[in-house]
Design brief:
The chain has a single domain, classed as Alpha-Beta Plaits, CATH 3.30.70.560. The strands form two sheets. Strands 1, 2, 3, 4, 5 and 8 form a six-stranded antiparallel β-sheet that branches. Strands 6-7 form a two-stranded antiparallel ribbon. The protein is built from five helices and eight strands; from the N terminus they run E-H-E-E-E-H-E-E-E-H-H-E-H. It has 172 residues and is an alpha+beta fold. One of its GO terms (molecular function) is 2-amino-4-hydroxy-6-hydroxymethyldihydropteridine diphosphokinase activity. Its EC number is 2.7.6.3. Catalyzes the transfer of pyrophosphate from adenosine triphosphate (ATP) to 6-hydroxymethyl-7,8-dihydropterin, an enzymatic step in folate biosynthesis pathway.
């Protein structure tokens, strides 16, 4: 299902199993190749400790999309990409090969049995707030950033991530 006009949406990307950097790069490429989706920009790549879970560190980023898809249709695309990447859900907050979450969909507020937008915990996670602050600093407050200061996170340099091939759209 499509919208009449393109909407900006922000999607959180994360992985902590397998080659996480490759999984995130591939996810961005696949998103950009989807009908009705264009990746506009990506944040830097971050390494962060799992929150409310055990396992290896995550690599995280945020992608800004322009999409003509309806929110539920975008969610279905994201879930299909997760499955293609080998995502399993054996228990809550299990380590994962790929995690794709709709953080914001324009200014919409959605609460259905399958989708909540804005993402209910976006403002509690450094691995979401710091990348969003790169892309849309006007939407992130100092108080929000201060609220996640105790979470271990570091911006990392990853050459492949810094030179995307999905149309030459530069990262922030």
């Amino acid at each position: 299902m499509k919208h009449d006009a393109a909407t900006l949406a922000w999607v959180g990307l994360g992985a902590n199993l397998g080659n996480a950097a490759s999984a995130l790069c591939q996810a961005v490429e696949q998103l950009h190749a989807q009908p009705g989706i264009r990746v506009q920009r990506t944040s830097s790549l971050y390494r962060s400790a799992p929150v409310d879970a055990a396992g290896p560190d995550y690599l995280n980023a945020v992608a800004e999309l322009s999409t003509s898809l309806a929110p539920q249709a975008l969610l279905e695309v994201l879930q299909a990409l997760e499955l293609d990447a080998g995502r399993q859900r054996p228990y809550r907050n299990a380590p994962r090969t790929l995690d794709l979450d709709i953080l914001w969909f324009g200014d919409l507020q959605i609460a259905t049995s399958t989708l909540t937008v804005p993402h209910p915990r976006w403002h509690e996670r450094a691995f979401v707030l710091l990348p969003l602050a790169e892309l849309v600093p006007e939407r992130i407050t100092t108080a929000q950033l201060q609220g996640v200061q105790g979470q271990r996170i570091e911006r990392i340099d990853h050459a492949q991530w810094q030179t995307p091939t999905y149309g030459g759209v530069p990262n922030v």
